[in-house]
Amino acid sequence: MTGRVRPRLVYERWTDPVAEEILGSAGIDVVKLDLDGANEQSWAALSSAHGYQVATRTDVAAVTGGEQWLAGPELLRRCEQLLAVCSAGAGYDVIDVEACTRAGVAVCNNSGPGAEAVAEHALGFMLDLAKNITAADRALRAGPLDDRTALRGSQLHGKTLGVVGLGAIGSRLVELCAPFAMDVLAYDPYVDAKVAQSRGVILVGLDELVERADFVQLTCPLTAETRGLFGRRQFAAMKPTAFFITTARGLVHDEAALYDALAGGSIAGAGLDVFHEEPPRADNPLLALDNVIATPHTAGITVEAAHDIAVATATQWRTIFDGGVPPRLLNPDVWPRYCERFSDILGFSPSAATVLKMKGHTR
To answer: Looking at the whole model, is its pTM more than 0.70?
Structure first.
């Protein structure tokens, strides 16, 4: 192919209009995917796309056959020009990374920009559960309160926090908890002891973490390794005074096992921002329990986070179509084949500097 091809990017939505502003001056054709429109139109847009900002699982849940718009083998088969796919946030369970790597498609997420929002939300769950804030609010609204001491809570100070996943969110949560002088344990097979020590954290196995922690926080992505990570055995090993909190993805924990642990008093309570089915049905048994507080996957939805994620998203797409290394590339092994496809499809190759940088990235 001779001459550069104008790149084409398909997206479902931006978290903030600033993304459109950043991309508008970059010489990129930007096309909105209408999930409520005709399938033929959507496939026509995607079949010619070089980049796809993948719709979230919540977006597609309300659409008949919505799973087809996630980045899996079928979509990759139909979109032969596709060079890169990106998830809207830190989670990337909407993308089949292995299938993309086989197809020579780069996979990126947007970890980092929303970490503050999610970490603050997780801390909010901890404070709410410990201090019985939501429980007290419910009791007041239900009628006359005979004995306020029944709402006696506990304090975070001096307790043990167990973090499952020490990425951007987990690390920021550790920082936010520093004023409470908590002992912090972490389970993350991809973090070494030296890094953990620099963050004031003791690395332990998952079994030890659940046995010792007063607050168990899931902040890990949903992957083949973490799917079903938390089940009956883990809940049974927790202290009866401990709280389970997750801002990760619903399928990391077993909802039925969690319900039994909460209803049977095996653990004290839970703060849930994610569910197996999103949005959760009103008759989800967990929502009927008094020792559960819940939000509809809104931990990362703040004005500031929406803006920052949009900026990071658009900037990453500009980097991709300029021939650079995406700053949040999840499958670096794809790089040699990706470069070949990039050159064939867009008509130019990543710069020598980019290739050298990538070699350093993959070591």
So the answer is: yes
